[in-house]
Write a structure and sequence with these properties.
270 residues, mainly alpha, minor pseudopilin epsh fold, binds manganese (II) ion, 3 strands, single chain, 11 helices
Length: 270
């Protein structure tokens, strides 16, 4: 009888210990309603800094699967700088190809699909080496063009809001800023982008990236950027990239640029 009691107590203790042990384990269902971007960023970012969305002012770009966002205007809406056929080919074919290639690269990688496009590009070393350059090029292409369509519109003109003041303070004048931006875009050898970024020190800066690299890989927040790949301008401008860069200001959506500028101020150092 006493032996049976000892067995019962021992069993009870093991049972209680098991419950306590189970309760202390991470519960995989707890975060199931949180978006992948929110769960992914802290685990892949080497620093505890808060990363703010780059694709849109309020959200990151999903990779499960990546999807082509619709143009926010008709293909002919930017005709003051870019013809309708260029817009159609650029969006429907070039951007679509980056989306398709990214999805193909991540096809058997559900772990990576859970990450946002931004999270992958912020920490490319965490992407397996066999698909790293494919992800860099195509996640970059998807993110760059997603930003590009938004920061253009039919009614370009003068900058508005806080961005106008910041440009004057940093570059002296709008004209000086545009000249430096155009020169940097013109100097990019081969294909790439010219950007206005907020750097990790919180300052506005003009940078150029090669290929489809996005400034977030270098810790910079892209506020606005122009695509200087030939596919962006060749039909109307042929080899005259400088003319394209100059005309492009006619279709800058300063309202959206200002939104992005204000979002970038949430960045550490911003
Ligand atoms: Mn392009």
């Amino acid at each position: 009888m006493r032996k049976q009691l000892r067995h019962s107590i021992a069993f009870l203790l093991i049972f209680v210990a098991g419950i306590v042990f189970a309760a202390c384990q991470p519960n995989p269902t707890v975060n199931s309603q949180v978006t992948p971007a929110q769960t992914a960023t802290p685990t892949t970012s080497p620093s505890p800094e808060v990363s703010i969305p780059v694709a849109y002012p309020d959200r990151e770009l999903s990779a499960s699967p990546a999807q082509l966002p619709p143009l926010p205007y008709e293909t002919g809406a930017l005709n003051r700088a870019i013809d309708a056929q260029t817009m159609q080919i650029h969006h429907d074919r070039h951007h679509q190809t980056y989306v398709d290639n990214l999805n193909a690269a991540l096809k058997d990688r559900p772990d990576l699909q859970k990450l946002s496009v931004e999270a992958m590009l912020r920490d490319l070393n965490a992407v397996p080496e066999d698909i790293r350059s494919t992800v860099q090029n195509n996640a970059g292409g998807h993110l760059n063009h997603t930003i590009f369509w938004q920061i253009m519109g039919p009614n370009g003109g003068q900058p508005t809001g806080a961005i106008a003041q910041a440009i004057n303070q940093t570059f002296g004048s709008l004209e000086a800023f545009q000249q430096q931006f155009n020169e940097t875009g013109g100097d990019r050898f081969g294909s790439g982008w010219v950007w206005l970024v907020r750097n990790p020190q919180g300052q506005l800066q003009i940078v150029s990236t090669p290929n489809q690299d996005n400034p977030i890989t270098d810790g910079n927040y892209p506020i606005m950027g122009n695509d200087v790949w030939e596919h962006a301008y060749y039909l109307r401008y042929q080899n005259r990239r400088a003319d394209y860069l100059k005309n492009w200001w006619n279709v800058v959506n300063w309202n959206e640029v200002n939104n992005r500028f204000q979002a970038s101020a949430q960045q550490p150092g911003g």
